[in-house]
Specification:
Strand content: 5-15%
Bound molecules: 3-methyl-2-oxobutanoic acid
CATH superfamily of the largest domain: Phosphoenolpyruvate-binding domains
Order of helices and strands: HEHEHHEHEHEHEHEEHHH
Helix content: 40-55%
Largest sheet: 8 strands, parallel
Oligomer: single chain
CATH class of the largest domain: Alpha Beta
CATH architecture of the largest domain: Alpha-Beta Barrel
CATH topology of the largest domain: TIM Barrel
Structural class: alpha/beta
Shape: elongated
Number of domains: 2
Strand order of the largest sheet: 7-6-5-4-3-2-1-8
Number of helices: 11
Length: about 280
């Protein structure tokens, strides 16, 4: 079994140019498959709201949802670096609330760190949480929890004025003490500049090459059906495979093909004895 990675490994990997491969995981099976495959880390993203709970956005996701999914993921991947994602309104209103909720991820779900969205405007929160001894991963560019402010789920940093804001966000997240940063839906030129400028690891989801890549597991596996962002590469069609398996099962049940002899428990006494038993109740 590979040794569980630490922050030192992630900083070394950046220095040596070794890519970090990671996905989101929301449940025990995905986490255990991720660990078995050798994922460098797992994010229990608040995207669980859409990918597992059927919400239209991440906004309704609660601390309780996140903690419970992080616990399942930790049980499935005891030996993998796990990032707990702070849900909407768990850190926005005050430093105290942010620190208390960040602490819950570590105390109740044994995550290794937390992630929160925003740059300049959340720098104080990042500072407070790191001052409490908790590792923070920043998340800039397209930040789904505040997509209203961005005019929707739109790529960021595509013109020079907007790229300046993204770069300022990156610098303030690093200055505030984050150990790593995730950049979402930003052109590769801007991401490459940020990855070069920052000492901390810079990871991408839809932001081109840098120190590592994240994909949403439900996108990668072809489970999530509502929409597929441009940056997703599908490696499987689990939706298709699942629907086909369910259809085959329905057909077998309707046609009496399932269950067959191999799927039942055999009696331990001679059949005559059972026939006598049934007669008692006839
Ligand atoms: O919740 C999540 O999975 C995320 C990704 C969109 C980066 O934060």
């Amino acid at each position: 079994m590979a040794k569980k990675k630490s922050i030192l490994d992630f900083h070394r990997m950046k220095k040596e140019g070794e890519q970090v491969a990671w996905i989101t995981a929301y449940d025990f099976p995905t986490a255990s498959f991720g660990e078995a495959a050798g994922m460098d880390m797992l994010l229990v993203g608040d995207s669980l709201g859409m990918c597992t709970l059927g919400y239209h956005s991440t906004v309704p996701v609660t601390m309780e949802d996140c903690i419970s999914h992080c616990q399942a993921v930790r049980r499935g991947a005891p030996n993998t670096w796990i990032i707990g994602d702070m849900p909407f309104m768990s850190y926005q209103s005050s430093d105290v609330k942010a620190v208390e909720n960040a602490g819950r991820f570590l105390k109740e779900a044994d995550t290794d760190c937390i992630k929160l969205e925003g740059g300049v405007r959340v720098a104080e929160r990042i500072r407070s949480i790191t001052d409490a001894g908790i590792l923070v991963m920043g998340h800039i560019g397209l930040t789904p929890q505040s997509s209203g402010l961005l005019g929707g789920h739109k790529a960021q940093g595509r013109d020079v004025d907007n790229a300046r804001l993204v770069i300022k966000d990156a610098l303030s997240v690093e200055q505030a003490g984050a150990y790593a940063i995730l950049v979402e839906a930003v052109p590769p030129e801007v991401t490459a500049f940020i990855a070069h400028k920052l000492k901390i690891p810079v990871y991408s989801i839809g932001a081109g090459p840098c120190d590592g890549q994240l994909l949403i597991s439900a996108d990668l596996l072809g489970q999530f059906q509502s929409f597929t962002p441009k940056f997703v590469k599908k490696y499987a069609d689990l939706a298709g495979v699942s629907i086909k398996a369910f259809e085959d099962y329905i057909k077998d049940v309707k046609e009496g093909v399932f269950p067959s002899g191999e799927h039942v428990y055999n009696i331990l006494d001679p059949i005559e004895k059972f026939e006598a038993l049934f007669k008692e109740f006839a």
